[in-house]
Amino acid sequence: MSEASVGIILVAFFVYLLMMIIIGAMCMKQNNNTEDYFLGGRNLGGFVAALSAQASDMSGWLLMGLPGSIYLMGTGQAWIGIGLFIGTTANWIFVAGRLRKYTIRANNSLTLPEFFMNRYKDDKKILLGASSLVIVIFFLVYTASALASGGKLFNSIFGIDYHTALVIGALVILVYTFMGGFLAVCTTDFIQGMLMLLALLLIPIIAYFSISSRGVSALLGSTGVDPVSFMNIMQENGETIKPVSIISSLAWGLGYFGMPHILIRFMAVKDDKELAKSKVVAITWVFLSLLCACIIGVIGRAYLAPMVLGTDGNVSSESVFIEMIKKIFVMDLHIPFVAGIFLCAILAAIMSTADSQLLVASSAVSEDLYKGLFKKDADELSVLKLSRISVVVVALLAIVIAWNPESSIMALVSDAWAGFGAAFGPLVLMSLYWKRTNLQGAFAGIVSGALTVIIWDYIPLISGSTPSEATGLYSLVPGFIISLLLIIIVSMATPEPEKDIVEAFEDVSRKPVK
Would the pTM count as exceeding 0.85? Predict the structure, then answer.
């Protein structure tokens, strides 16, 4: 790109980032207490809640990781998208409404750890401490993945040093999250979700019509792949996909039941009417977004031909969407400002996830650990101040984790997703649907799920290899199963829950809580 084009794109980025910061400043005035800062006063509308939940869910993975993996290995990588669609649909149908009701019934719980504590009458704060620790550990990795995406984005577009780009992106996210809290995060996520969907819909359509006369199959063949194999969802890199790979990909859907930054959106919706609206909007958004992201991987391989990303000194395959936008609007149509707007969609995906992760991690430190464990009489103002300090500290630690420019966005997301899904997913489901679950079973589920993922991914137990490397099975699968089994086994082997805990469960199951 010419220097003039880069300058115009930079202006578009500046306008967009300035708008996000202004929103943070405006929302700051509405944060009078921790319920406002962490849940927006439980007053989210349906559309905002839906797009905020899904935008914070997908991150830069949607526009970089997923299209990049399909670009590299073919449509067999789409099984992850299928698993995620099934998972997010199930989450909205089976978890959203009941979790919102139960968190209100459970002493108006503001965070997931606080809900576990109140749900099981955890006077010793065992669940609170364990779940807060899991959140801090895995959100550091998750936030690092988002910041790494931002660094690679700025590096790819502007040629800025990766480390400089990493810090710039983190600072902007930090500023509006620090000021505006949950309301700022959800408002910006709504805008970012709309921008992401618009980009996902338009870019592949424009690219397809520009190459349709030459034929997608012919162009795919010119990049060194067999078009038939590339388009076969049952093949990967020209070989038949193993069942374990399909199981691992579909298992990503299980992660939704344990994602604190998504579950907190359910807790914050204004009422049941708005929640029903959110459900339809969110499921529609995620279906269109995942479908278009997969299409981008295919069309991008043909559209950018004969260049093959990731070879001969070209940028990695995870930059396919970026390269498509640059070619369409800068090289072909010569309207770089529009390119800047659509490139902001990738930045939007990154920011919408990172801000949510920062906020949930800070709530675990200030609301759950500080106020819940160490200083129970802390006033609202001191907790609010610590929340903002925690946002800064978590961001700095995430920058350290993401400092290596060779770090894989997909690998970082995969680790964090498995950790949350295994530690919290089974317990969320059991807490909402099985009244026999008790405190001991809940603790066993959290600890076993988190430890299984860590051991599976990082401890070389099988001939010098980790279980993940030796079996090819995604760690979320054994982590989820072991956590679920231990919740059931330990709960059945220990005393039944107290009468008032059972009554609360039956009350939530019986009638809606407004």
Answer: no
